């Protein structure tokens, strides 16, 4: 018998990396596989939530019973997420969104010539920060992939982006973060550490995280 503790909740999940074009054949991206976000979307749907998954390009199969919105750039993810935002109860931002994109997208393939080349980059919109600023009834969960001072940076992010929970992982640890099927995370709220779990399959991290969210969302509503 399946647990249906998320029935009636509309959950928006973002996953994967974004790709920021430089010219018709090149782009900037990062090592996110999308596995954590897909695991969350799949588990949330299994437990009865209505799920929208906004995803960058990944090699993964879309989960069953989930509405999938495919995007490529940070700007496209921003638009898809903001569009759905008024109609959802929970947002879980597992995507690794590019912080910068090439300032100029060349119409033709760039030719090689000089020995060195400097690329000018500009900031992309911070999606989660915008959601935090425009928060009404929504419960906001962010991810923080860090390589140092994990707890400090995660809590600083939670406050700056007006989040309800932040899931922090040290991506330098074996079996944590990008590409792996497992993750090692700690969860924080405004008051500090909420939970710290050992190395677990991403499916199990997703299940535990959704249980924490369910408790908190049900408590206030
Ligand atoms: O600041 P940083 O990028 O490390 O924050 C990570 C969190 O913010 C993640 O939940 C990520 O999905 C979200 N984010 C975002 N838009 C950006 C950058 C990050 O929503 N442009």
Characterise this structure:
The radius of gyration is 18 Å and the shape is globular. The two termini are about 25 Å apart. With about 220 residues, the chain is an alpha/beta fold. About 40% of the residues are buried. A hairpin with a 2-residue loop joins strand 12 and strand 13. The longest helix is centred in the last third of the chain and has 19 residues. The protein is built from five helices and 14 strands. Strands 5-4-1-6-9-10-12-13 form an eight-stranded mixed sheet, sandwiched between helices. The protein has a two-stranded antiparallel sheet with strand order 2-3. The structure holds cytidine-5'-monophosphate (C5P). The site of cytidine-5'-monophosphate has 14 residues, from helix 3 and strand 9. This is Coenzyme A biosynthesis bifunctional protein CoaBC. Its cofactor is FMN; Mg(2+). In the N-terminal section; belongs to the HFCD (homo-oligomeric flavin containing Cys decarboxylase) superfamily. In the C-terminal section; belongs to the PPC synthetase family.
Q: Fraction of residues in helices?
A: 25-40%
Strand order of the largest sheet: 5-4-1-6-9-10-12-13
Oligomeric state as shown: single chain
- Please report which band the strand proportion falls in: under 5%, 5-15%, 15-25%, 25-35%, 35-45% or over 45%: 25-35%
Structural class: alpha/beta
Terminal residue distance: 26 Å
What about the largest sheet? 8 strands, mixed
Compute the average pLDDT.
Answer: 95
The total beta strand count reads: 14
Which ions and ligands are bound to the chains? cytidine-5'-monophosphate
Order of helices and strands: EEEHEEHEEEHEHEEEEEH
Poorly predicted runs are none
CA-atom Rg in angstroms: 18 Å
Number of helices: 5
Shape: globular
EC number: 4.1.1.36, 6.3.2.5
Cofactor: FMN; Mg(2+)
Pathway: Cofactor biosynthesis; coenzyme A biosynthesis; CoA from (R)-pantothenate: step 2/5; Cofactor biosynthesis; coenzyme A biosynthesis; CoA from (R)-pantothenate: step 3/5
Catalytic activity: (R)-4'-phosphopantothenate + L-cysteine + CTP = N-[(R)-4-phosphopantothenoyl]-L-cysteine + CMP + diphosphate + H(+); N-[(R)-4-phosphopantothenoyl]-L-cysteine + H(+) = (R)-4'-phosphopantetheine + CO2
């Amino acid at each position: 018998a399946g647990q249906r503790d998320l029935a009636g909740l509309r959950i928006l999940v973002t996953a994967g990396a974004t790709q920021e074009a430089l010219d018709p054949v090149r782009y900037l991206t990062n090592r996110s596989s999308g596995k954590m976000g897909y695991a969350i979307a799949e588990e949330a749907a299994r437990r009865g939530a209505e799920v929208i998954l906004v995803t960058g390009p990944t090699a993964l199969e879309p989960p069953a019973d989930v509405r999938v919105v495919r995007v490529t750039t940070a700007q496209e993810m921003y638009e898809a997420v903001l569009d759905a935002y008024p109609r959802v109860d929970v947002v879980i931002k597992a995507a690794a969104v590019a912080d910068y994109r090439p300032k100029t997208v060349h119409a033709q393939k760039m030719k090689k010539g000089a020995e060195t080349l400097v690329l000018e980059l500009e900031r992309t919109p911070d999606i989660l920060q915008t959601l935090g600023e425009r928060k009404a009834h929504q419960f906001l969960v962010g991810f923080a992939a860090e390589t140092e001072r994990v707890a400090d940076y995660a809590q600083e992010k939670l406050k700056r982006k007006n989040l309800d929970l932040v899931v922090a992982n040290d991506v330098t640890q074996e079996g944590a973060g990008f590409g792996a099927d497992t993750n090692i995370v700690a969860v924080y709220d405004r008051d500090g550490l909420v939970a710290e779990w050992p190395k677990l399959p991403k499916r199990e991290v997703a299940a535990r995280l959704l249980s924490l969210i369910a408790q908190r969302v049900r408590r206030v509503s």
